[in-house]
Design goal:
The longest helix has 18 residues. This protein has 18 helices and 15 strands. The radius of gyration is 24 Å and the shape is globular. 42% of the residues lie in helices and 15% in strands. The protein is α/β, with parallel strands linked by helices and 418 residues long. The protein folds into three domains: 217 residues, HUPs (Rossmann fold, 3-Layer(aba) Sandwich); 97 residues, Tyrosyl-Transfer RNA Synthetase (Orthogonal Bundle), CATH 1.10.240; 80 residues, RNA-binding S4 domain (Structural Genomics Hypothetical 15.5 Kd Protein In mrcA-pckA Intergenic Region, Chain A, Roll), CATH 3.10.290. It has a six-stranded mixed β-sheet with strand order 1-6-5-2-3-4, sandwiched between helices. Strands 9-15-14-11-12 form a five-stranded mixed β-sheet, with no helix packed on it.
Length: 418
Amino acid sequence: MNPRPDFPDYLSEMKWRGFFEQCTDEAALTALLAAGPVTGYAGFDPTADSLHIGSLVPIMGLVHLQRHGHRPIAVVGGGTAMVGDPSGRTELRQLLTVADIERHLAGIRLQLGRFLRLGAGPGDALLVDNGDWLRDKTYIDFLRDVGRHFSVNQMLARDSVKSRMETGLSFLEFNYMILQAYDFLVLNREHGCRLQVGGSDQWGNICSGIDLCRRLGRAEVYGLTYPLIMTAAGEKMGKTAAGAVWLDAARTSAYEFFQYWVNVDDRDVGRFLRLYTLLPPARIEELEALRGADIRGAKQELALAVTALVHGEAAAQAAADAARAAFGGDGDAAAIPASALAAADLAADGLALIEVLVSAGLVESKGEARRLVRQGGVRVNGQAVADEQRRLVAADVQDGLIALQLGKKRHHHLRVEG
């Protein structure tokens, strides 16, 4: 999809879409982008085997960079993940083993490849692992070659460090800023990278990288940060009662992913259409103008567009069909999340509903399940459950399944086998 004609450059579209938070030198970066293709990068540490929707903003930032004719680099942090980024954290991240990191990297590489056109040609995106240049560095050599260029006073003044001083910051985490700065230096030297992009919590790390590139590479490089996205209700983007919303269908099914976007706050719809879709700007402005009950249509279009980007057109359409079926329409319910249940388990006294909710992954604990029941938030085959001791038995099976519903929007089918 070509950029909108009235967006003369990458930065103007970033501003219109709501990506632009801070820039180290906007005038110079604007001139650089106008002079020809620019290489820019964003980093993604493999803290899990999947990215979540909090990662979609930097991913979409790279997508738009490529759409405007520039070259994006996605850096997966096989090296930095061994240390852990303290930014936005109140406590030390759990240390990962090398085996964990390698497993996580495999999943994340596949996900990034769905968004970016990877290759070795002009304008093709690169996917690199900073473990390739960090893991073999000896500690003494790194201190002498890189560490000596960092002022502890400046590092302590960075928000990512300063915000952790009261709760405690390990020496391991304190080094993260230096490692990320070194990434920028390596990418500038090896790939001519002139731009780093990331969330606003990365501002201090980005500035440190710019300083290092100037000191050791005599290079003029730039930084651009995106806002950290909060919902209109003041909640962190992508957090739900069931946990994070993941990009991997094995963690968050395409149906659940679709439902997340359908159920966003009315006040967020226009902003999310700009940030998370590639719909034409003119169409986004039409959807933003909708009011009242018509906003439901805008949410459907938002959900369909984002789900298609992440899971593909077919999965997005199946999720939309399943949503219609779940809420009494004529759609196909096949995409509604389901788990298997043996018919023999329903014989005699059957299974405790509370335990089934936990084993199916619908809640994290029996206590949470009981609270939902007490609040009237659990239904079996459309009937509200009032008894915490409710058991599922053979009589609950209808057309080979038992339909569970949590709250108003979340559906799950127990497919009874045998």
